[in-house]
Every structure is written in C-alpha cells, then in structure tokens.
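Work Package 3 (structural annotation) set out to generate three-dimensional models for the target panel prioritized at the project kickoff. During this period the team completed the workflow that converts sequence records into discrete structure tokens, so that structures can be stored uniformly alongside our sequence database. As a representative example, we reproduce one entry of 153 residues exactly as it appears in the project archive.
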Amino acid sequence: MSPILTLTPHLLRLAADVQEQILELQNDLNKLLGFPAQTLVVAVAPATETPKRRKVSAAGRARIAKAQQERWAGIKGTTTAPATKAPKKRKLSALGLANIRAGVAKRAGKKRAVPTVTGEKPKRNISPALRKARSEAVKARWAAKTAGGTTRL
C-alpha cells in the first residue's frame, strides 16, 4: 500500500504548502541567478495508449467456430455438418516410377543390381583367376598356421 494513501487530509494540505514554499524559494533563487522563473508543473502520469487490436474477419471466425464444433462433436460422439473430403492423393504410375529409377541409375553412372523378388542378393561373378588367387592365399595362410602347431585360424 502506498504511504500517500495512509496520510490524513490535514497532512496532505501541509505537504502541499511546503511544496509551494519550495517552489517560491526556487523561483527567487532563479531570479537572483538570472534564470527564468519556473511555473508550477503538475506531474501527470502519461496516458498509456492501448495497442491496436487485431481483428478477425467474419470468415475467419466462421472457420474457427466450425472447427470447434467438429472438435466437440468428436468428443461427444455426435455429428455436425459433413466434413469436407480431403483431396485425393496423387499416385505415381509404374512408367513414371521406372523413368525416375532409370534417371537415378544413369546419374549414378553404373548399373545397380536389382534384388530378386525373394529379397536375395544377386550372385556375384568372380573371374577364375581371382578365385584361384584367393584360394592359394587361404591355403598359404592355413599352412603357416598349422606349421606353428595351431589347429584354428
């Protein structure tokens, strides 16, 4: 609570008289020093302007009301006006999908192996020379291990 609210009317009159005496003395001092005299200025709190309110159009209010009615209908289990149908989803044709895949493969610069219907990976073809080199490498590694008395790789 503000201390001014607790003051009596008599004390408020005394405070106003003291304020007037202070202003008179201030004016006398200003005259002696050559400054212009000051007048009594009552401090008033500036009026705060209320900010502009945003307005919702009638159509906007109607959409909001309709949506709220549909939400309540969903909660209560009742029906309101028929809901608008969502637009049909567009489907990609098989030819369009094939064109996209061909373009991707072309940009990748190589043919990609297409998995079979069962999900198995296609068999990789290894040249006979590479197969022979790998086989000899494994045999050599096994011979080195078994020479040291190891029975596991």
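Helices lie at 9-33, 58-76, 94-108, 128-147.
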